[in-house]
Amino acid sequence: MKSNRRTATFFAILAAALYALNSPVSKLLLNKIPATMMAALLYLGAGSGLAIVGFIQKKAGIAQKELPLTKKELPYTIAMVILDIMAPIFLMIGLSKTTAANASLLNNFEIVTTSVLALVVFKEVISKRLWIGISLVTLSSMILSVEDLSSFSFSIGSIFVLLACVCWGIENNCTRMLSKKNPLQIVVIKGFGSGLGSLIIALLLGQTTTQIGYILATLLVGFVAYGLSIFFYVYAQRELGAAKTSSYYAVAPFIGVAFSLIIFWETPSLNFLVALMVMMIGTYFVSTDNAH
C-alpha cells in the first residue's frame, strides 16, 4: 500500500513538473499565436498525442488492462469537457479586466475549490495536516505570483478569474470520478472535446494563425504539458484522491518559476527564496499525511 502511494505521489509531482513547462514555453509562443487559439492547440495536442500513443500500443499488441468509460460516466465526462472550455474563457475575460499579478495570485484558489468540493461533495478525508500542507503550498504559490503587493485589488476581473478557478476545481473532482477508468481514453476525450470547443471560439473571434511551425510547436507542448500531465494526474488520483493530488499539483507554479529562471536567465528574487522555504515545509506536511 505504501509502495502504491509512493508511486502515486511520484506521478502527481511528475504531472506538476510537466504542466509547469506550459507557462514559460507558452510565453514564448504567445508572441506568434493568439491566446484563444493557443488554448485550443494545447488541448488538441494532448488529445492527438495520446491517441497516437494508444494506436502504437494497440499495434504493438500491448494488452489494455484499463477499464473503458461507460454510459454511467457520461455526465462526468460531459461536465469535464464543458468546464475545460469555460475555465479558459473566464480566465481570459478576467485577464482583460485585471492585472496579471492579480490573476496569478487568484489562480491558486483552484486548490481550495478542489479540496472543499472533495470534502463536501465526495466525502474525501482531509486531515488537519493536509489542510496545513495545502495552505502552505498555496501560500508559496501566492508569494511566487506577487510582484507588487499594491497591484492586488478586488475587481470584476477578479470575479471572472475566481469563476475560472471554480470551474477547474469542479473539473478536478469530475476527473476524480473517472480515475478508475482508462487514463489514456480520458485524456483523448478531454483533449479533442475541449480543444475543438476552444477552436470554434477562436475561429468565431478571428484569433487564428497560419504559421505551421508554431502550430506544431504548440501541439507538442500540449502533448507534454497537458496530455502526459493529465495522464499521470489521473493515475495519481486513483490512490491519493482529488484533494491531495491537487495539493501536489500546486508545486507546478514553483517548478514553472524554476524553468523560467533557466529559460529567461532571470535572477532569483527574495520572493523566490522565501517561497522555496514555505514550499518545502508545505510539501513535507502533504507528503507525510497518512489520511485515506
Nutshell version of this structure?
The chain is mainly alpha-helical and 292 residues long.
Features:
292 residues; mainly alpha; globular; 12 helices; single chain
* Overall morphology: globular
Gap between N and C termini: 11 Å
H/I helix tally:
12
Can you give the mean pLDDT?
81
Largest sheet: none
Number of domains: 1
| Estimated structural class | mainly alpha
Question: Fraction of residues in helices?
Answer: over 70%
Q: N-to-C SSE series?
A: HHHHHHHHHHHH
Q: What's the Cα radius of gyration?
A: 18 Å
Q: Which ranges are low-confidence, i.e. pLDDT below 50, for 5 or more consecutive residues?
A: none
User: How many DSSP E strands?
Assistant: 0
Structure description:
By secondary structure, the chain is an all-alpha fold. The chain has one domain. The chain has twelve helices and no strands. Helix 2 packs antiparallel against helix 10.
List the helices and strands and how they pair.
Layout (H helix, E strand, L loop, with lengths): L1 H19 L1 H8 L5 H25 L14 H24 L2 H8 L1 H12 L7 H18 L10 H22 L5 H23 L6 H38 L2 H13 L5 H18 L5
Helix pairs in contact: 1-10, 1-11, 2-10, 3-9, 3-10, 4-8, 4-9, 5-7, 5-8, 6-8, 6-10, 7-12, 8-10, 9-10
